[in-house]
Each structure stands twice: as C-alpha cells, then as structure tokens.
C-alpha cells in the first residue's frame, strides 16, 4: 500500500524520512492532491538510469528506422567481436 502523507508532515521530517525505503517512496499531498514523492537515493539513481537507457534505445530505434537495421553478424564485426 502506498505511503501517503500531507506535505505539512514535513515539519517533522525525521518521521517522514524514517518511512522511506528502496522501492517504497513516500508520496506527499498538498490540498489533498498528490504533489511530491520522496524516494531513497538508490531508487532515484536507478530511475534516472532507466530513463537514460530508454532514451538511448529510442534514439537507436529511430536511427535504425531511418538508416536501416544491422544484423547481428554486422554488429559484431563493427564492434570487433568474434562469434564464439
């Protein structure tokens, strides 16, 4: 179940921070609506890495659609990888 607290609970931030765990953010509301999410730094960094990876995958797909796909043998050759 999500951990949801009013933003006013930040007055006692120690208690709010105690409720944060990797994969379990604390959602803060303002005037009854979702406003902020507090996440563990590991979760934040993981999320940023995923967003970056998805962006690179998207760039690759657009490039392949425009310039054509490369088969695995050609990719290995370009990278200097021998097929084992």
Task: Describe the model.
This protein is an alpha+beta fold and 84 residues long. The protein has two domains: 3-39; 42-79, no CATH class. The protein has three helices and three strands; from the N terminus they run βαββαα. Strands 1-2-3 form a three-stranded mixed sheet, with no helix packed on it. The protein is elongated.
Report helical residue fraction. Answer: 40-55%
- Show unreliable segments: none
Distance between the termini: 48 Å
Shape: elongated
- N-to-C order of helices and strands: EHEEHH
Query: Over the alpha carbons, how many angstroms does the gyration radius reach?
Result: 22 Å
Our count of helices gives 3
Largest sheet: 3 strands, mixed
